[in-house]
Amino acid sequence: MLSSLLVSWRNVTRHKKRFLFTLIATVLGVAVMTSMFIAKGTFANLMEEQEALYAGEADFWVQSSDRFFSEQEWNEVLEQEQIDASVSSLFVHGFVEQESGSLAENSVRFTGVSNFQNELIALPVKDGDVTKEGLIITENAAKLWKKKVGDKVTFQDMGEMEITAIVYEGAMLNSPKTMEEALYKDFRVMVPLETLQKWAGKEGQISNYRFRVKEDTNKNELLTTYQTGLAGTSLFVQPIVMDSKQNNDVDDMYFVFDLIAILSIFISGFIAFNMIHTSILERKKEIAIMKSLGYTSGSVIRLILRETGFLAVIGTFFGIGIGIWLGVFVQDILIAAISSQEVSYDLVLGEPIIISIIIGLLFPFLAAALPLYKAGRTPILEGMFNKNGTQTGFKRLHRARIIIGLVCTGIGLIDNVWAFLFLFIGLVLLFPLWMRIAGFCLHPIVGLLFRFSGKQAIQSIKQFENRIANTTAMLAIGVCLALFMSAALEALPKGMEKEIRATYGGDILVEKETPWTDSELGSLMEMEGVQTAFAYKEIPNVTWLTKDNELREFSLMSYSEQSSLPFMVTDETDQESDYPAIYVGERALTEWGGEVGDVFSLNTPAGEQAFFVKGIAQTTHYSNYVGIVEESVMSDELNWPGRYHVMLDVEDESHISTVLSEIWNQFGADIANTDTVTNNIEQTTRAISGMEELMQGLLLLIIAISAVGVSNTLFMNTMERIRELGTMRAIGFTKGQVRRMIVAEGLFIGIVGVIFGTLYGILVIYLNSISKDAQGLVSFIIPWNSFALAVAGGIIFTLLASWLPSRAASRIPVKEAINYE
Amino acid sequence: MIEISNVTKEYKTGNEKVPILKGVDLSISEGEFVCIIGPSGSGKTTLLHLLGGLDIPTSGNIQLQGSELSSKSEKQRTLIRRREIGFVFQNYQLLPTLTVYENIVFPIHADGKKVSPKEVETLLEAVDLKGYEKRFPHELSGGQQQRVAIARALIHNPKILLADEPTGNLDRQRSGDILDLLATFHYKRKQTIVMVTHDMFAAGYADRIILFKDGVIEAEVKREDDDYAKFLTRFMA
Amino acid sequence: MSVKHSLLALLYEKPRHGYELKTGFEELVQGMWPLNAGQVYTTLDRLERDEFVTSPGHDKKDRKLYTITNAGQEELWSWLEKPVGRSLLKDEFYFKFLCASHVSYENKQTMIRNQKETMLKDVLHLTHLKKQMVIMDNKTMKMLIEGALLHLEADLKWLDMIADV
Asked: For chain A, what are the domain ranges?
C-alpha cells in the first residue's frame, strides 16, 4: 500500500507545474466554496441568535391589544404552578438630556424589566454587571453619549440613573451608530421595571409578560387554556417563535452565495478534469503496458484514483484553511453592509466545513470519472503501439454533445432560478461549436497580429480543441456571471426604489404608543405639506404553522377602503369564501407552503382564526413576510380595536423632514417609531451597494480561478508538444516566436471567453429582466463599466495566465526536446 | 566553411560534470560531404548540435563562414539556423499537426518570407512526393516522412545540411533511397553536408570520414586515401 | 559469365564491328570488366560458327560488321529466360573456409578479417559507384550495385557470424 501510494505520488508530481496549478485551482475552488458556506451559515446563525436573544429562553408571552396592561389583570388568569421562569417588561419612550440634538435624535426607548437576574434575557456584556439593577446601555449609546459605567444619565421629565453595564449591540438592546441614524432609530436602554413605571406614570402596567413553562407541561393544552381564559379581554397569549424573516430578506443573498460556491467548485472541477484527462492520455502507453503485464482495468482505475486522492486531500486541506479565513472576511463585509451596528458573531464552522470537506474530497473524483472510464478501457495493443495518436485538424464535432448542449440550453431558458445552471452546462457542451464559429472570424485576426506564430497557435488550438474549449467556457461563465451580477447590482437599487415607492403606501410612517384619535389625525392633516394621513392597524406576533408543522410568526397589517394600499396584489383569485380574506406576502406564502385559494389558520389575539387566501401581496413592509386583512376584520374578528400606525402623504418629498420634526414636536412623548420612504430606500440601496464590492471581489476570484485554468491548459498544451516545439526551434523558430505563439493561444482564449461570456451575460440579463420570479426588479441594462472591466479583465487575466507557459515553452532546451518521448 | 577549433562541451548530471567533447579540431571546406562515425556516446551528435547552434560549446570556437557562432545570441543563432542550415533528424521530427506542404515550407514562413510555389514543386518532385502535399505525417511511411524532412531541410536552399542519423530508423532499401537523395542534392546544389551515422553503407557516400571516440577525433580518412577501407575495417568491424 | 550473350545483346541493338562491340561492352558494365580485343574476336568466331551471328560484309574502313541471326535471337531469349541457380560452393571463400576448417588452419581469424576488409572495401567502392550512378541517373547499373551491396551486407553478417564461432 505504502509503495503504491509512493508510485502514485511520483506520478502526480511528474509534472510539477501542472499539478501545482491544478492544486491551486482546487484550493481556490474549495476555499471560495467553504467561505460561502461559512458566511451563509454564520449569517443565518447570527440572525437566529439575535432572534433567540430577543425571545430569550421563554416559551410564551402575553401582550395586550391596548399595548399596556395591568399586572394585576394577568395575575388573575395566571396559573403559577406551571411557570418555571418569567419576566415582565414595559416599553416606554423618552428622551435623553443632551446639550444638542433634536427630539428625534435624542429619542430613547426604555425597556423596564422586572427582574435583572432572570434567565429569560441574555445580554452580551461589554463592561459592568448586567445583573445589578440600574441603567444598561449599549456600546453605541455609550459612545454617542460619551458615558461609561458609573456615569449618570438624565432623561427628560423622568429622572437620572447610574449606568451599571454597557453591552454590545444585539437584538434586545441596540442603538444608532451615528447621530444621523438616530433620527430614525431609538436608543434602546434597559432600566428596572418599577423605576420606569414610576417615571412614566404607569404604575402596575406592563407591555408584555414572558414566561417559560415547566418541562412536563403540555404546551398546546396550555395555549388553548389561556386563549380561552383571555377571550374577550384585550390580553392575548402567543407562543414565542424565532422567525427572522420579517426583518431581513436574505434569501436572494443566500442564493447568490450558493451560486458562487457551485460555480467555483464547477470551474475547479473542470480544471481537475483537464489535468486528469491529459495525464491519462499521456500515459496511455504506460497503462497499456501495465495491462499487458496483468493489470486489470480495476487496478488501473485504482492507480488513477489514488492520484486523484492526492489532489482531493491536499486541495481540500488547504482550501478549507483558506476558506475559513476568507469566510470571516466575507462575513465582516456582509455585516458591515447589512447591519448598521457592529455585531459580534460566532463563526459557524462545523456544518459548512463538513459539507465543504465532503464536496472538496468528492469533486476531483467526479471530475476523474470520465477519464477513468477511458483509462480502464485503454486497449492494450492500440495503447502500446499507437502512432502517437496525433490529431490533425478538426475532429468531427461530437453530435451527442451538441444535442445535449442544445437541450440543456433550452432548459436554461425556462424561467426558474436554478434553470440557468443548465444554461451553463449547455454553454460548456456547445463551446467547441462556439469556438469554431469564433475561430472563423478570429483566426485571420490572430494570423494578422501574430503572423506565422499566430498560425501555429491556431494549429495548436485545433489540436487541443476540447481542452481549450472547456477552459474558455469556464472563463466565459466567469465573465457572464460578472456581467450579470454587475447588471443586477446596478439595476436592483432602481428596481427596489421603484418597488418601495409603489408598495410603501405613503411617505412617512408614524407609530404611536396610544391609538390615533380622529382629532390627532385631523391635526396631522393640517400640518403644512401634508396631503393625506390615514391610520391603520397592525397586529404583531401572529403565529401559524407551516405545512411542515413548523411554528412561524409574522405581522398582520390592515387596509381599508379609504386608505391607499401599502401593498400591491400580484395574484388574486375570483373565488369567495365564508372565511375572512387575507392577502399573504409572497415570502410568507412560500414559507407556509400553501397557495392562493387555500385556507390559512392563524393564532391571533382572538385565538385561532381561519382565513381565506385571496391573493398574493407585494409590499415593502416586513420584507414582504406579512399578512394583510381588511381593517374591519381586525376589529370585528381579531379583537384589535386600536390604530397605532399612521401613514402620511406629503406634497413633495422635500417636506418630509419638516413634517417629521413637526410631528415629533407635537406628539414627541407618545411616538414609538417613525420611518420614511426615503429612509427605507436609502437603507435598502445602501445594503446592496455595500454588497457590491464583495460580489465583485468574489467574481474576480472566480475569474482568477478560470485564469489559473488557462495557465494550466497552456502548460499542458506546451508539455504535450515539447518535441514539436523542440523541432520548431531546431528548424528556425526563435524563442520570441514560440512565446508569441503561446501568448496568441492565450489571447484567443481570452477573446473568445470574453465574447461568449458577454453574449451569455446579456442573454442572462435579458432572461432575468423578463423573468416573473425576479418581479421586474432587474430591468434590462447593459452595465457598460463592468462590460469594459470584464473585457479588459478577461483579456489581461488570460495574457497574464499565458505569460508563464510562454516563458516555459520558449525555454525548452531544443536538444532534449527533440528526443523527448 | 566550417572551422572548429579546440571545442569542448560538458554537461551537468546532478553535481557531476560530464565531458562529452574534449577538444575537437576540425575544418570542413565548402561543398564537402563529411561523415562522422563513432560509437554511441562518443560525442558525434553533440558536435552536430553545436554546429547547428542548438547549443554552445563550453570552450573553443566554431566558425561558420568566417563568423563565430558561439558569440552570437540565441536569436541570432536561430536566424542563422533557419537561413543557412538545414537539419535532418533520425526520427524525422515532422510537425504532426501540419500537412506535408506546411511542414516543408515551415522554415520559410518562420522567417516571414514568401514561398515560391515553383520551388516547392521542384523539391516535391525531387523527393518524389508530388500529390502528397495535403497528407499528414502519420499517413506516410517512414521513408516518405524522412523525404519530407529532407525537403524541409532544403527548402530555404541552405549552405549547410546537417543530418543526424538520417537513415537510422529505415531499412536498407529506404535508407539507400534517402542517401541517394542526399547525394543527388549534394551533387546538384553543392551544399556542405555533415552527416552523423553508424552505418557503413551510408559512410560510403562521404568524401571524408571522421571517427569519433570518447569525445575526440580518433582518426579521419579521405576517400582518395589508399588505406580508406583498412581504416574503416579497423573501426567498424 | 557470358560474354557471348552480352555480345548478342549488343548486336541485337544494331549491327556492329568488333571494336564497337568491345567499347559497347565496356560501356554496358561501366568499365568494370575490361575486355581485350582477342576475347571479342574468339567469341565472335564461335558465334559465327554456331550461326548465331552472321556478317553482311565490311564497312568503309574495311572493318567486318556483324548482325544477329534468328537463331542468335532465340539463343539470347532462351538465355535470358533461364533462371540462375546458386551453388553453395561456387563462392571461393566458402570453399576456402571449408578447407581451412578441414586442416584446422591456425590463422582462420586473420583469413576472415582479411576477407572482411576486402568486402568493406568493396562496399565503399560500390557505394561510391552507386552515388555516381545516381548522379548520372543510370538506373540499371544502380540496381545492379544495389544487389551487390545487399549480397555484401549478407556476407559481412556471415563473416561476423563465423568469426564468433
From this structure: 1-56+259-384, 68-216, 502-678
Burial of B187: CB neighbours in 10 Å, binned 0-12, 13-18, 19+: middle
Q: How confident is the model over A217-249, as pLDDT tens digits? A: 788 888 888 888 887 788 888 888 877 777 777
Q: Would you kindly state where each structural domain of chain B is located, as residue ranges?
A: 32-57+71-236
Residues 6+ apart with CB under 8 A from B84: B64, B65, B158, B159, B160
Start-to-end Cα distance in chain C: 34
Residue of B10, B50, B91, B95 to mutate when probing chain A, most A C-beta within 10 A? B95
Do B205 and C128 lie within an 8 Å CB cutoff?
A: yes
Q: Where are the beta strands (DSSP E) in B80-236?
A: 85-88, 160-164, 192-196, 208-213, 216-222
What is the tens place of the pLDDT at every residue in A304-362?
888 889 889 999 999 999 999 998 888 888 877 766 566 667 788 888 889 999 999 99
**Which grid cell sits at B143?**
521513408
Average pLDDT over residues A801-809: 88
Name every chain C residue with its beta carbon within 8 A of the beta carbon of B187.
Answer: 135
Q: Which of A256, A339, A257, A244 is nearest to A588 (CA)?
A: A244
Beta strand pairing call for A135-138 and A159-167? parallel
B188 to chain C: nearest residue by CA? C135
The hierarchical CATH code for the domain B32-57+71-236 is: 3.40.50.300
SS3 assignment, position B226: coil
Distance CA C80, CA C70 (A): 15
Would you call C131 and B223 a contact, using CB atoms and an 8 Å cutoff? no
Is C128 close to B203, i.e. CB distance below 8 A? Answer: no
B contacts of C153 (beta carbons < 8 Å): 172, 201
ipTM greater than 0.90: no
Which residue reads 536561430 in cell numbers?
B78
Interchain pair B180, C134: CB under 8 A: yes
Residue with cell 514560440: A738
Q: What is the pLDDT of residue A713?
A: 87
**Global confidence as pTM:** 0.74
Per-residue model confidence (pLDDT) at position B160 = 93
